[in-house]
Amino acid sequence: MTKDLDSEQKYSRTAYADGPRLLADIGATHARFALETAPGVLRAVRVLKCDDYPGIVPLLHSYLADHAGTRIHHGAFALANPISGDMIRMTNRDWQFSTDEVRRELGLSTLLIVNDFTALAMSLPGLSGHDLMQVGGGAPATNAVIGVLGPGTGLGVSGVIPTIDGFVTLGSEGGHVNFAPADEREFAILQFAWKEWRHVSNERLISGPGMEIIYRALAQRNGVHGAARSSPDIITGALEERDPLCLEVLECFCGMLGGAAANLAVTLGAFGGVFIGGGIVPRMAEWFATSPFRARFEAKGRFTDYLAQIPTYVIMTPNPAFFGVATILSEHLRGRSGANTLMERVQHLQHELSPAEQRVATLVLEHPRKVLGEPIAEIARLAEVSQPTVIRFCRSLGFLGLADFKLKFASSLTGAIPVRHSQVRTSDSTHDLSAKVIDNTVSAILKFRDQLDVRSLDRAIELVSRAKRVEFYAMGNSRVVALDGQHKFFRFRIPTSSYGDSHLFTLAAGLLQPGDVVIAISTSGELPELLAAVDTARAAGADVIAITGSKSALAKKASICLAVDHSEDSTTFLSMISRILQLLLIDIMSVGISLGAPEEGETSAKGRLLISHLDI
Known about the structure:
The protein has 616 residues and is of the alpha/beta class. The protein has 4 domains: 2-115, ATPase, nucleotide binding domain (Nucleotidyltransferase, domain 5, 2-Layer Sandwich), CATH 3.30.420.40; 128-316, Hexokinase, domain 1, CATH 3.40.367.20; 341-412, Winged helix-like DNA-binding domain superfamily/Winged helix DNA-binding domain (Arc Repressor Mutant, subunit A, Orthogonal Bundle), CATH 1.10.10; 433-614, Glucose-6-phosphate isomerase like protein, domain 1 (Rossmann fold, 3-Layer(aba) Sandwich), CATH 3.40.50. 46% of the residues lie in helices and 16% in strands. The chain has a 6-stranded mixed beta sheet, sandwiched between helices. Strands 9-14-13-10-11-12 form a 6-stranded mixed beta sheet, with helices on both faces. Helix 22 packs across helix 27. It is globular and about 90 Å long.
């Protein structure tokens, strides 16, 4: 099935200089494709059945076969699946694939894969009046938060937050909040669902499968025999056959959706409006506008007037995810979302490089993750060049050396693990709290890696390497990190000591001399005793390396600050992640010292350390 969405007005827009962009919205049943030839201009829209293909690569080749003469450099796909790394395993299909392998198979410079609901949320700011059907009153506030729900196979929930330079979407699992009945009928439906599940979320009932549960529950409650119906059959039965049971199901479903939308609106303060997406509600169209949805949306007691101001809309335009992924891709290429332009730079400059450097460029383009994960010696071996050639390649692209190149390259690769934080709850099982602690730590390390100040690390390694004496000052939870540093540095035959008592390190600071180094470690960076000792050490001529927050008082007093800006609720939990990041900095410095201070203009020690300690 093919559909052309061009118009004469859209043709007037400037085409992309590097050719059309491949867009896709891939669900469990259907995959929709389009080529974006200019901003907002979609051509060659086509829908394919996923069942007809054994995997995503044959599916993509089938669509692209009609465009064999078209060179495509960039692509972005919306996928009905959680996205949490390079390797993707689809939930509702027996498909799995590597994002990077698909990118190379298609010969793309850029390939982004995002969750389909993230794409839907990103499409909202660009929708206009004819794309939407307003239900009820209210008017959107300018530059306000937007809420979005999408009942389909599940219930997607998200929000769009305006920022100075665009919009940010929320990665939410709001569909899994507990379902709260509003009347006796809904309580009866909840009791019916409890027979199958101990936990009944909004998604269990406000979705396609949920509509079928409501149908069975109301049939039992009303004492009628209802022939088995799918959700499309229920909608048809209500709107075309005027079947009483099906009509009651739709009324109940729309009321529940209105309640969920209202909860989202008050939670987010969504004065930009609440938008309903997915394939179910648009099928009801005009009937939905007169359904119980809006009345239930405003039925919030003391907050009725609050909600009456917030408009609600149904997204009526076909394939809104295309516009969302197009926006994400455009921002990505402009550099606002960790742009993948580095691969393009390598590709565009390859012909200007020396023959030996071109072999390094080829390795980067064909095996980017291998380049990211291997030390310089292995990269040189794989490219069949010398190690200095690898360094010259990096400098030809404008980087200080391999470490600087890798640091930027790591954040530009697609399929990266997202930085996220999940709050540990007292009700969490051991399995859940274990997963959260590990995920939080991994995410924090990845963010920490991308924010490392290479030059400060080089200076710190150089200071410690030539220090006459190194003293660690730390209190509380940071004392463990100081002791670890003392044990490591002492092995390099550097006179090293550690003080965890404020009285002792204040006395010790007064005995320091020029050429000595203090490493002061503090999560807050605001301890008065530690700040006083640092002042004494600096007055004595010693240098101070602070491992602390970049905006703290300790950072301002130090000769060098190695920033750890991860924030934790230390009033409730120990500063676990901050401690791990502090220990990583000690490891980086230790291995850097063991390898020798970096040569001028090169950050080799730090680069090798990133490979051995921070590549996850």
